[in-house]
Specification:
Layout (H helix, E strand, L loop, with lengths): L8 E5 L4 H11 L3 E6 L19 H6 L3 E5 L5 H13 L2 E4 L3 H6 L4 H7 L4 E6 L14 H8 L1 H5 L12 H24 L4 E5 H8 L1 H8 L15 E5 L5 E5 L4 H11 L13 H6 L1 H12 L4 H10 L4 E3 L3 H4 L3 H5 L4 E5 L3 E5 L24 H7 L4 H10 L3
Helix pairs in contact: 1-8, 6-9, 8-9, 11-14
Length: about 400
């Protein structure tokens, strides 16, 4: 199989979610991704679920299509191996705090002198400078600081969301920057520094939700975002569903017809889209009673018959019973010779000529250390010496 980025070597010196997710996306597209981990324990995400002994499903998802090389970068010999690897690499992904990266001698300026074609992607909490530069950064902290969390929780009873929105979106944006740098390198022959932070990505991600405020308007909230457009109801069987209307009057009329409440068309308070926006929560209260009269399956069928966009608000257990999701081939399977089969989702992008693929399962800790070192020219005795020193 021909892959889009075959022959591109990526070195990932990172753990947890955001940077490994970027590495997995590049691996899906055919990059050789070499994941550098500490000899003692490796990526901290390996321990997220102790019952899997360092090889949990979440780790497998974030680290598919990679090789694992163990290096202790606190030791001079370990850093020397990494530098030799970076001399041959196309991309470095790391998530050190800036001060830690400098202490290890891994600043872009130093690496670019050795390998001018290297694309160095740094994922940090808050960016490379500023008063928060050296603070530890985490997904939920960036969500809170950026205002994103305020859009998805109640301020008087705040709760975190059940998905790492910031970590995963940062991994996507980092990959976007790396891909742009790879394309630019074809023209210039030089690599560059790609700076992506949890905070900046989260602000960028919610940009269209804050620009009204930035330009003198009302800030978006959970109260005003759905007005006149989005409705959530519970059916008689206590199963939730979601309805999203377009701005056309016909959509409103079809919605009321499906709900059996065409009598509301004569209500002047709901006559126009502006009226429905102003009286949104009144509409919700009225129709909630109607939707409580029949089970969800009835309402989904009625809405479909009236061409009203709708969906069941699925639990994770329900998701993979959905016929469209099954048609798309989810979940997909990948197998490790020691740990057996893992069910995953995989790439969100379908390429007709160079498809993304599961090329290899997530590695065991240090599974490819000898292979990678031999590729760098180390012989058996030199590898044994590195092990004795604790550098690998």
């Amino acid at each position: 199989m021909v892959t889009a980025l075959e022959g591109t070597v990526v070195v990932e010196v990172a753990g947890h979610v955001a940077a490994p997710y970027a590495g997995s996306l590049l691996g899906d597209l055919g990059c050789e991704v070499i994941k550098v981990e500490l000899p003692d324990g490796g990526d901290t995400h390996r321990g997220r679920n102790p019952k899997y002994e360092g090889y949990g499903p979440s780790f497998r998802a974030l680290n598919r299509n990679k090789k694992s090389l163990t290096l202790d970068l606190k030791k001079k010999e370990g850093r020397e191996v990494l530098l030799k690897l970076l001399d041959r690499a196309d991309v470095l992904i790391e998530n050190f705090r800036p001060a830690t990266r400098s202490r290890l001698g891994l600043d872009y300026e130093a690496l670019a002198k050795r390998n001018p074609r290297l694309i160095h992607c740094s994922i940090s909490g808050y960016g490379q400078s500023g008063p928060y530069r050296d603070k530890p950064g985490f997904d939920t902290i960036a969500q809170a600081l950026s205002g994103m969390l305020n859009l998805v929780t109640d301020r008087d009873a705040p709760k975190v969301v059940g998905v790492s929105l910031t970590d995963h979106s940062t991994g996507i944006f980092a990959t976007y920057g790396i891909m742009a740098a790879l394309l630019a390198r074809y023209r210039t022959g030089r690599g560059q520094f790609v700076d992506s932070s949890l905070l900046q990505v989260t602000l960028s991600f919610i940009e269209s939700h804050v620009v009204d405020f930035l330009n003198g308007g009302e800030s978006v909230s959970r109260d005003n975002f759905p007005r006149g457009r989005i409705y959530c109801f519970l059916a008689s069987d206590d199963l939730p569903l979601v309805i999203h209307l377009s701005g056309h009057q016909e959509a409103w009329e079809a919605f009321l017809d499906a709900a059996g409440r065409s009598d509301l068309l004569d209500n002047p308070r709901f006559a126009t889209r502006r009226d429905r926006s102003e009286h949104h929560w009144e509409i919700v209260d009225i129709l909630a009673e109607s939707f409580r009269q029949r089970p969800r399956a009835h309402w989904l069928a009625a809405l479909d018959a009236n061409r009203v966009p709708n969906a069941p608000l699925n639990s994770i257990e329900e998701v993979f019973e959905d016929p469209q999701i099954q048609h798309l081939g989810f979940p997909r399977e990948i197998e490790h010779p020691s740990y057996g089969q893992t069910r995953l989702i995989g790439s969100a992008v379908n390429l007709s000529e160079t498809p993304a693929a599961f090329l290899a399962p997530a590695p065991l800790l240090g599974e490819h250390t000898t292979e990678v070192l031999q590729g760098l020219g180390y012989d058996e005795e030199e590898i044994r010496t590195l092990r004795d020193l604790g550098a690998i």
